[in-house]
Amino acid sequence: MSAAEGPLVVGVDTSTQSTKALVVDASTGRVVASGQAPHTVSSGAGRESDPRQWWDALCTALHQCGDAAHEAAAVSIGGQQHGLVTLDAQGDPVRPALLWNDVRSAPQARRLVEELGGPKTWAERTGSVPGASFTVTKWAWLAENEPEAVRATAAVRLPHDYLTERLTGQGTTDRGDVSGTGWWASGTEAYDEETLAHVGLDPALLPRVVRPGEVAGTVRDTHDLPFSKGTLVAPGTGDNAAAALGLGLRPGTPVLSLGTSGTVYAVSTRRPTDPTGTVAGFADARGDWLPLACTLNCTLAVDRVAELLGLDREAVEPGTSVTLLPYLDGERTPNLPHASGLLHGLRHDTTAGQLLQAAYDGAVHSLLGALDLVLDPDADRSAPLLLIGGGARGTAWQETVRRLSGRPVQVPEAKELVALGAAAQAAGLLTGEDPAAVARRWDTARGPVLGPVERDEATLSRIAGVLSDAAPLLEREPGER
To answer: Site Important for activity: which residues (predicted)?
Structure first.
C-alpha cells in the first residue's frame, strides 16, 4: 500500500446481494483497499435475509482490506433501506429480516393509509405515503402473521443500524434511513407516536436518531475486526442517501440509479409531501431532503428477460412495437404490488432482440415517469441526468435512457458510490466538512457526458397506453378472478 496523503476512512455498502468495503484516503478520495462478500436472499413469496450474514460479509470484506482497515480513523455504513430487523434481548435476530422488495405487506399498507387519515395526511406527516416497501407495513404484517416473533422482539432496527450497532454496541440510526420507515415524522423530525401506537410498536424498541455530523460511537473491542479500538463510527445512512453524498449532489441535480431496484432522485431544500405516493419524501444525510421514486424491477428484471431469451444483455434490436412491462416482482412505481410481467403487441416478425429492448423500455419508462415529480419546479430540465448503479455502464441502458428522456446523460467514472458516500461521511467526522463537499473535493461525479437525442414520444405514449388499458389485470390480487 502506497502512503496516504491524509487519514484513512472506511465506507461500507451493505446491499441486497453483498457487502462491500472501501478504505479511502480522506485527503484525495483515492481508494487504497477494498473487499466484498456475498449474502443470500430467499426466493418465493417473500424476500428475506439473515442479518448475521451481513455481519459475516462485513467481517470478510474488511479482512480483505488488510492493514489499511486497521489504520482507518473512522468508518461509516450505508445500507439497503426499509428492511425490518427484529432482535431479541441478547441482540440476536428473532427471524430473518424482511427486505425492501418483500411486498407481502401490501394489504397492511393499504389498511394503514386508510386508518390513519388517507394519503394526504400521511404525506404531510411523514413525507411519504407508505407502500409495501416501507418498514411500518412490514411490522404490521409481522404482527398479524407472526405474533410470537413480535412478542420476542426487544429491538427494531434497519439493516445499516444493525451493523452499526454491532460495531459500537449502541442502537442508533440517522435521519436519511429512518425517513423510509413510515414511523418518523418529517415535519417534526421525530418518531411519530400516533403511528407507533397504531401498529403496536413501543418507541423504546427503536434506535436513537443521530444528527448529521454527530459521532454514533466508537468501535468496541469485543470482536475480531481489523479496526483499532476507538475508531470513530459515523451515523451511516440508507443506500440512496449515501449515493447522494458519494456524488456530492447539489440541489436540483437529477440522479437515475440502475440497480436491482431503480431509483430517480434529487437533493431539495424543500420538504416533499406528495399525496399521490409516487414520490417518497425522504430526508438526506446532511439536513436537506431527498425526494425519490423507486421501482422494484430494474437490472435484475431485464437480465432475467435476457436469460429467458438466451441473449446477452446488450443484444437489443431497434424497431419494435412490442410493449413489455417487466413487473416480475410486483411493482412500486407505479404502485402495483400484485402485478406480474406483461407482454403486448407480439407479432410473427418480432425478434428476440426487440423483446429485450422492450424490457429496457418498460423499466426506464417507470423511472422517467416520476422524474418531473422528483425535481423542484425551478430545476433545469435540460441538465444532464447522472446515471449510476450497476446498469449505468451498459450501452443498452445508456441509450434507452437517452432516447426516452431526451436529455444528456453523464456517467460518473467513480464506482461503488454508496460506499464512497459512506466514506465521505466518515471523512466529514474527521475534518468537520459537509460530506457532500468532501465528495466534490474528491471529484466523484467526473465522467463522460453523452449528448441528448430526440425524445421517443411514440414509445412513451405506447407504453403509457398499454399500462392504462391493462390496469385491471395488473391490479388483480393473486387468486382473484
So the answer is: 13
